[in-house]
Specification:
Elements: E1 2-5, H1 7-14, H2 21-32, E2 37-41, H3 42-56, H4 58-71, E3 73-75, H5 79-86, H6 93-104, E4 109-111, E5 125-126, H7 128-139
Parallel strand pairs: 1-2, 1-4, 2-3, 4-5
Helix pairs in contact: 1-2, 1-3, 2-7, 3-4, 5-6
Length: 140
């Protein structure tokens, strides 16, 4: 399974946001172990840098970004992705961009804590608990 991680799931791990960090971290481990293929949207990288810099300082934020770039593939954002996102019918343009970047980069699903924001998604959308349960069930 090739899964695009929404920014909120990435930040849960990097900023140890409880009670969400533990399950998200388990998904990161599955990527690190090669049991899951993960990607983040190019826009997630800039958002994480901005938020992490404010939370943990510039040096630690850069460290986090280096780790993310080692672990995740990057779903590109280009004119085509942005154009399709505009016409997708999502209430939140950022979520539409994430969805279209996922689709354009061959992802098979999205993981987010805000599944309701992806009501118009054409890709399967999981919350972190659902995705972890599905992956663990498939490995049994």
């Amino acid at each position: 399974m090739k899964v695009l991680f929404d920014t909120n799931v990435v930040l849960d791990v990097l900023l140890a946001r409880q009670p969400h960090a533990d399950v998200a971290a388990q998904l990161f481990v599955l990527i690190d172990n090669g049991r899951l293929s993960g990607a983040i949207c190019a826009t997630t990288v800039t958002t994480v840098h901005y938020i992490a810099t404010k939370s943990v300082g510039r040096q630690q934020a850069r460290h986090h970004l280096h780790e993310l770039l080692e672990l995740f593939d990057i779903a590109a954002v280009d004119r085509n992705v942005l154009g399709k996102a505009l016409d997708l019918g999502f209430d939140d343009f950022e979520d539409a961009v994430l969805h279209e970047a996922a689709a354009a980069s061959g992802m098979t699903a999205i993981v987010t804590r805000n599944t309701k924001d992806f009501a118009h998604a054409t890709l399967p959308v999981f919350d972190p608990h659902e995705l972890l349960a599905a992956l663990l069930a498939a490995s049994d």
